[in-house]
Backbone:
């Protein structure tokens, strides 16, 4: 787990090594254990290392394969690297380290760009072919590891975070109106390749990009499961599906124990993280460290779920750590969380994850997290209504159910020069749901949420907040084989029992019933939802700053209306509209974007 950066020139000039150094230094929180730079000809690479696998200096990066004349930088973890190393050794490859990075280089040497299809894991990497000048960039199937790009005439820069690209300079920081529309419509989801800045893009998940020396490139999407009923699963009973899901999750959790350091669990007390703890206990994991966070109550809303996390910790005898955050600390913590964001993120739990990660990183370097289960197994309360509509009407139902507001509302919020003439977010959903390969409306919805929304909202939050403290978060519910199995699972089994029916059935085999049959919980941060005093003060400062007025994204009359009644304006999904507006402006100011 690390941070990578680099620059490629296509105009005959040498890379700007000072810019690559600035990017690399900005990535220091992602990789506090080592720093490396490499440059040859028109390419320069930078790397910050977090030591998880092969703690020796043999695993340092950038890493070279002198026989194949390859140089690479890698972020993430290939969980099956030992099996691949054994296979590659049988094919004549020799290894000088015990690192998965070296296995990635050898796999590329043996199988070319098809190597990604053999990897079980989360990753982003860049490989340079020294003889041809070709540069290959790749990202894992579910986009768990980020890769941001800034392309200008004659030059391509890349980094593990958007702020790292800003540190290099020369980025067009004007607002992308389409991305802004997505941000305000789709609960801050901005699908790849866009970001809210015109000058920064991101490599889509499950994509390999081959960049030629002249700057031309070609992309190959190497994975997309079919959301249909596959023949090999025909005739399976509900019990058969429960066993299949439990076996696949068990394998996913087992894979994510691969490390040369201890692995803990972020335990919310909900079904998903509790299942991870239960399966690790079944694997014989002793002295498992678990971590929970809670907040003070505000507006009559409870801010913790310690009852359930304590119950699970006691049941499985974990080494449990509990963090209670007072409301007055949230406003101070907010700035640190926003600084860690590669893109603006409005979900309340982003600050919670940042605070929790700070504490967890003092104890362990790796944790498993339950992120992704609700999207993969249809756990949210809105899925049953969306599933009832005919397949051709899926897009309209999705936008009506999930979007924060309709396109017409944006005209009252935004200044004309950043307001798209069309409902670009609705168009995106229509186009995605119309693609063949999803049998029912729910299949189409889950495909969209799993492969777009989840990647650019909850998954990104977890990566950004944990890695800002040098903490690696692994997400077994996003094991690609488990996702493939869930995609083929009949919708009625996922919707059963109030959502995640097949997963709840699996949970009843290994968890106390009280944990499985409890009401669904969320990660509550009441002080943000209800604009408690210290948070509101920070919001007012951001929106009243000269930069906000000069930027001119939001109509001033709209901002004044929000500030006059901070807790009164809600999106269709119940989010605080003031928080949406203020978070974007706070993010822009924090990253000194003018």
Residues:
């Amino acid at each position: 787990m690390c941070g990578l950066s680099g620059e490629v020139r296509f105009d005959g000039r040498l890379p700007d090594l000072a810019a690559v150094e600035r990017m690399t230094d900005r990535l220091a929180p992602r990789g506090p254990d080592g720093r490396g730079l490499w440059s040859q000809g028109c390419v320069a690479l930078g790397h910050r290392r977090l030591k998880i696998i092969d703690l020796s200096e043999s695993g340092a990066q950038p890493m070279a394969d002198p026989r194949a004349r390859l140089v690479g930088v890698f972020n993430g973890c290939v969980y099956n690297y030992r099996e691949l190393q054994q296979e590659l050794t049988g094919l004549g490859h020799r290894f000088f380290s015990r690192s998965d990075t070296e296995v990635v280089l050898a796999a590329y040497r043996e199988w070319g760009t098809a190597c990604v299809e053999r990897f079980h894991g989360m990753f982003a990497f860049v490989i340079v072919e020294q003889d041809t000048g070709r540069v290959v960039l790749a990202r894992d199937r579910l986009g768990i590891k980020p890769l941001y790009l800034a392309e200008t005439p004659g030059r391509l820069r890349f980094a593990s975070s958007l702020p790292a690209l800003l540190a290099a300079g020369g980025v067009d920081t004007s607002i992308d109106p389409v991305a802004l529309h997505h941000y305000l419509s789709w609960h801050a989801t901005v699908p790849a390749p866009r970001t809210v800045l015109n000058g920064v893009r991101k490599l889509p998940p499950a994509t390999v990009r081959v960049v030629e020396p002249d700057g031309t490139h070609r992309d190959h999407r190497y994975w997309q499961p079919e959301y249909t009923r596959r023949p090999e699963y025909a005739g399976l009973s509900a019990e058969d599906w429960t066993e299949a899901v439990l076996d696949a999750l068990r394998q996913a959790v087992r894979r994510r124990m691969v490390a040369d350091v201890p692995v803990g669990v972020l335990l919310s007390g909900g079904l998903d993280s509790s299942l991870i703890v239960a399966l690790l206990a079944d694997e014989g994991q002793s002295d498992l460290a678990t971590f929970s966070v809670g907040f003070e109550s505000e507006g009559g809303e409870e801010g913790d779920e310690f009852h359930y996390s304590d119950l699970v910790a006691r049941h499985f005898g974990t080494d449990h750590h509990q963090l209670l955050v007072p409301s007055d600390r949230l406003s101070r913590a907010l700035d640190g969380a926003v600084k860690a964001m590669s893109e603006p993120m409005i979900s309340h739990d982003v600050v919670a994850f940042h605070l929790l990660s700070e504490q967890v990183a003092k104890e362990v370097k790796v944790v498993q997290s339950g992120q992704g289960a609700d999207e993969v197994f249809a756990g949210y309360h809105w899925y049953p209504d969306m599933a009832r509509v005919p397949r051709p009407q899926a897009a309209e139902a999705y936008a009506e159910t999930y979007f924060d507001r309709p396109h017409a509302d944006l005209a009252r919020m935004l200044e004309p020069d950043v307001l798209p003439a069309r409902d670009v977010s609705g168009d995106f959903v229509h186009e995605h749901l119309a693609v063949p390969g999803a049998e029912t409306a729910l299949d189409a919805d889950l495909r969209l949420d799993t492969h777009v929304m989840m990647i650019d909202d909850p998954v990104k939050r977890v990566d950004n907040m944990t890695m800002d403290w040098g903490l690696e978060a692994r997400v077994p519910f996003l094991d690609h084989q488990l996702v493939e199995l869930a995609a083929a699972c009949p919708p009625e089994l996922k919707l059963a029992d109030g959502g995640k029916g097949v997963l709840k059935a699996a949970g009843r085999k290994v968890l106390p019933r009280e944990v499985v049959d409890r009401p669904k919980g969320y990660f509550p941060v009441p002080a943000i939802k209800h604009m408690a005093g210290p948070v509101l003060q920070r919001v007012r400062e951001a929106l009243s700053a000269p930069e906000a007025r000069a930027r001119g994204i939001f109509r001033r009359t709209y901002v004044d209306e929000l500030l006059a009644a901070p807790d009164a304006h809600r999106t269709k999904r119940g989010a605080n509209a003031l928080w949406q507006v203020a978070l974007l402006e706070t993010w822009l100011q924090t990253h000194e974007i003018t």
In short: The mean pLDDT is 94. Residues 238-255 form the longest helix (18 residues). The chain has four domains: 2-221, 231-377+451-526, 383-434, 527-590. Residues 527-590 form one domain.
